[in-house]
Amino acid sequence: MLKTLKNELVPFVKDALKWNFSGSRGYQIYLCILFALMVVGFYAYTIQLTEGLAATGMSNIVSWGLYISNFTFLVGVAAAAVMLILPAYIFKDKDLHKVVIIGEGVAVGALVMCLLFILADLGGIIKAWHLAPAIGLFNWPASILAWDVLVLNGYLALNVLVPAYILFCHYNGREPVAKRYRPFVFLSIFWAVAIHMVTAFLYEGLPARPFWNNPLLGPRFLASAFAAGPALIMVVLIVIHRKTVFKIDSQIFNKLRIIIVVAGTVNLLMLFSEIFKEFYSPTHHSLSAVYLFFGLEGHNALVPWIWTSITLNLTAIVILGFNPGKNNPKILMPVCVTLFFAIWIEKGMGLIVPGLIPSPLGEITNYSPSWVEIGVTIGILALGTFVVTMLIKPALFIEQRFEELHGESA
Amino acid sequence: MAANKKKTMNQKHDRRTFLKGAATCAAAGSALIASGCNNRPLPGGDDEMSVRWKEYFKKNYQLMTPEEKEATIRRLEQLSKLDYDVDASIARTEPRGKVLFGYAFNITRCEGFMDCVQACVEENNLDRKSKTQYVRVFEMENGQMDISTGNGKYFHEVPKEDHFYMGIQCFHCEQAPCIKACPTKATWMEPDGIVVVDYDWCIGCRYCMAACPYWGRRFNWHDPEVPKEEMNKKQHYLGNRMRKKGQMEKCTFCIQRTRNGKLPACAEACPTGARVFGNLLDPDSEIRFVLKNKKVFRMKEELGTDPKFWYFID
User: Fold this and answer.
1) Is residue A238 a part of any domain in this protein?
2) How far is residue A124's CA from residue B198's CA, in Å, rounded to a whole number?
3) Which of A285, A230, A304, A288 is closest to A261 using CA atoms?
4) Which of A163, A359, A385, A407 could form a disulfide with A363 if both were Cys (CB 3.0 to 4.6 A apart)?
5) Structural domain span for residue A236
6) Minimal Cα distance from A145: which residue of B?
7) What's the complex ipTM?
8) CB contact under 8 A, B210 and A355
């Protein structure tokens, strides 16, 4: 048993590595660029490590910045895999079933980035073991951050193990045993909602910050993630469709498009409700929203960003809704990139920074990330893209081969 | 017999040296990051690496036995000599029974001199480079009560006409949102009501800072700097001992003073007598007199944090 496992595992890993590092000239250049960006990030991080977080643009007033913004947004991207898993497994959607594995690859990459952004944000990273079970001291269940550590790592495990098992079986030319992995698939559906809600509760649970202390935060997180995540998956699918032999059916694009339009519309509706509440009867608690949308006392760093975000968001949803290109990837691609970027602004810096401005004592300051912070962020994003690539490329090879061998039964 | 004993002792010594060496080697990675490349000998036969290694792997202060507390304090005193060239004496005075500290601030009397701020900076070894202050005083226009309308950065002669002054610092809330937020239990409330931070257990995530409705916490964005000759050597593990970059800190009601029966530095320094500090459980204390006989209120009481810090009007 152990021997056969070894005999099957070693070539599996070897082939995966072979497929990952071989490819066209363009692919090699792409990997080199990612690697170079990771080196930039690492270099920037060494500076932060020696100088402390003083190397960032953060302060005692804006005490969370670019790192936590990206973390928050990427939790959404990670959870979005569920928008493929849910129809594929619960509604037995055959089209989406074929691309579930890609969604899971994107989720793993996003989770790796989430965890790295949290680590990059820590003042004492060498003390991160204080969070580890058994040797550390975990403030569970009181601290929502402790919950978040649990659910993020759990979701990462689910999204690594289930696809790894399925791919491993397919690689060796056999059907995976459903009862071994299906319970975990269903668990991961609930878990995806959990990582979202828990991350929203991080902010929602703080009466000190009225901008975040809002029961709509969790549901809005879900809605915006279920628009931004599938938008990213759509982009990945289009790239695969164009650059590889793995062809994506236009039905899949259509289904993803509908998911994005529905989620995006719900998101905009909730945004409208929030804006109404803040500006119809403005109170002292609306100051953060005023800062975000119009600026306060001459501090208006976020104003152009948020209006850009809202404009792009609306435009993208309208175009996707009317679908003028009839699911033509040439139109879907730029629109999905636009929507992803719009939600990145809104759910990242547009959510985290105004929550901290004005300070609880009413003091106002602008925040702009330092080059060290931007460098580290680029490095982590490159690393996440690298992880997604390394997971999806062998997965495509294995799935393609398995489908050829077993025909439609896959 | 004697020779035998000597041999065992030698063996023991060898083994200890070996273990120490092994620990030192293993520590190299993380300790090097923390300390640079020197491994200087320390008084008492220890060497820097092994002391830093043990410091790195110590427990949360709440879980330490009295012996472990003593040991870490000895190590911290050694490192204080090494890092700052200061012979600090670090206490771990425990809370006294039947004591619950509380604070009251007289907004009629305060004239905004900010002697309290200066006294606090000196007493608590606050970073001079970033001008960290635990205590802040806001100049408020008459007719206003919302602290966010006040001016926390005034540089002119005080008291200013038609203005009054409100001091603010950590309120040591009974229902403290910061304690709930901390993922590693690095901040907690002591039995005498003081909310403290175990600086060495804090991982620097700053969630407590986001959770505090009173802006009561300060983060060390870089290593704090205090001139050697100005450093207060009378320190407490949970109080004014030197912090490092990446750690959270805050007002501790001057734990190193108040647990020895003294007033906090801010209350002692106040020239107008606007600051009242005492034991809430002692019916004869001045603070109990204020709570009973004056018109008092607390800041943002609607948040349910139950601060042990009251404002009052004469």
Assistant:
1) yes
2) 13
3) A230
4) A359
5) 25-409
6) B183
7) 0.94
8) yes
Predicted structure pTM score: 0.92
Q: One-letter amino acid identity for A137?
A: L
* SS3 state of residue B37: coil
Cα–Cα distance measured from residue A269 to residue A251, given in angstroms and rounded to the nearest whole number: 27
CB burial of A210-229 (b: ≥16 within 10 Å; e: otherwise) equals bbbbbeebbebbbbbbbbbb
Minimal-distance CA residue of chain A relative to B249: A60
Q: In B, which residues are within 8 Å of A152 by CB distance?
A: none
Matching residue, tokens 């750690």: B247
CA distance B3 to chain A (A): 43
Q: State pLDDT tens for residues B183-240.
A: 999 999 999 999 999 999 999 999 999 999 999 999 999 999 999 999 999 999 999 9
Look up the CATH number of the domain holding residue A335: 1.20.1630.10
Q: Which residues contact B214 (CB under 8 A, 6 or more apart)?
A: A360, A361, B168, B170, B171, B299, B300, B307
Cβ-defined contact of B203 to A145 (cutoff 8 Å): no
* DSSP-derived pairing of the beta strands B101-106 and B309-313: parallel
State how many domains chain A has.
Answer: 1
Confidence of residue A223 (pLDDT cuts 50, 70, 90): very high
| Runs of H (alpha helix) within B36-124 | 48-56, 66-84, 115-123
In CATH, B101-313 is 2.120.10.30: no
Confidence of residue A1 (pLDDT cuts 50, 70, 90): low
